[in-house]
Amino acid sequence: MKKQATLDSNGCRKFGMPDKLAYAAGDFGCNMSFALKGTVQTFWLVYMMMETGLLSALLLLVQIWDAVNDPLIGNLIDNDKRKYKMGKFKMYIFVGACGLLVAGAAVFLPFPNASVVVKAILFILGYIIWDACYTVANVPYGSMLSLITEDSGERAQLSTWRSIGSMFGNIIPMIILPMLIWQKVTYDGTGNYHTNPLTGEAYKIGDAVLDPLTGKQFETLLGERVFWAALIMGILGFIAFMFMIKSITIRVDENSVKTNEGGEKFNIIKSFGKFMKNRPAVGATIAAMGMFLGMQSATTANTIMFATYFNKASMSGVVQMIGFLPMVLFLPFIKKLVNKFGKKEAAVAGTAVSVIGGIIMLIFPTIENRDTALIVYLAGLVAFGIGMGVYTCVSWAMMADAIDYNEWKFNTREEGTVYSLHSFFRKLAQGVGPSIVLLIMGVLGYESELGTIGQSFETSHNMCWLVAGLYLFSAVVQFIGIAVVYNLDKKTLDKMNKELEERHSAETVTAE
What we know:
Layout lengths: L16 H18 L2 H11 L4 H28 L8 H19 L9 H28 L1 H4 L3 H30 E3 L34 E3 L1 H25 L20 H10 L1 H18 L1 H11 L7 H9 L9 H8 L1 H19 L8 H41 L4 H29 L13 H29 L4 H22 L1
Antiparallel strand pairs: 1-2
């Protein structure tokens, strides 16, 4: 006989492991698409050989639309009062997931010999289609955390499991993708290098082509494989989304969420003003922007650094994974840490450790021996990852608390709007950061037409300084956002939750 599920006072299945696994699967699905963002710049810079200034401008253009798009979708979801068989939030996620089946590959159409105008059109159209599908799935997914449970501890668990889903969703493309899309260069009778720099003898067909600066084999990007990899990742993401939709339980009536007082029409300026008064939301957003302006923006420079300075682009994902594995250490203990110290307090300690990791990274460009430099880089990355492990495990729960703070201070619940404005700034950082980094790469000497073969020693070394500086910048901004701006410490959060519980109880009595 099938075991009956235990129900709560509202007749819903009690919160438990199915919800946590399902919510983790949702972020896994999102990251099957989002994890490709860092590959976009590399693909268009190295394989499509688009000039850094033009790519920077186009990337900024599409990311600004990306940022504007989020509040619009959030408002659409907030004001949609129709009844869906699977529920409003799940329905939007389903539509977005269907689009992401193929949309992720749309921005990786491999036509390196096309004209500059055609390349620009392909980039813009592909990115817009991809972004639209991703937004439709991701905005309701992020907002749904506060509708699955109202319990603060359970929300922290969901945030932790979301981080698990995100981690595994990033690990797959982080480790496997570079191994698939980067290939060692062998001599085929063409190209600018015809003589082995170590022996002085002419290359024969099939010989490894060596970098004269490092004596190690060059690597080149296989653009066609990027397209097919993105398509496969879209299918994996769709499967994960379907598992989440089937398994997760929403315990708060979606259409009872009050998005605007007095039935007023959505006012983006007013909502923005309220958001800026929501100090926890602003603090959490500054921290997230710091993460993307620094760490995420470093992705392309990091790939170029591994390809030109270490000649290990295909193994860059393995190195990155080693740096971020420490995140796993905190997963079993995050609930105890939060209950004892508080979310803010734990996140502040984590971001402080990340700052130390960023400082260590500043050392590796000064070391001449590249193998030793790689070890020091890895040490800094591990310290950075330890700090990020704590922060990411509670970051989404902190945003859920920020949504409650909005109700506490302004007597309105605006899940979709608050989250989408948070996402607006995150995505703005995702666009501005990489765009600025691409311009800096051009200033530091990177020449797109050379790809990863032929960049000067000065250029490859400059990439090391750029990567180290970006990681340190990321950690410092995260620390400021959580330690200085975010004001929901453990004591204040307990007070807020108690007052909201009393307010909800009073409303229930009045309604009866």
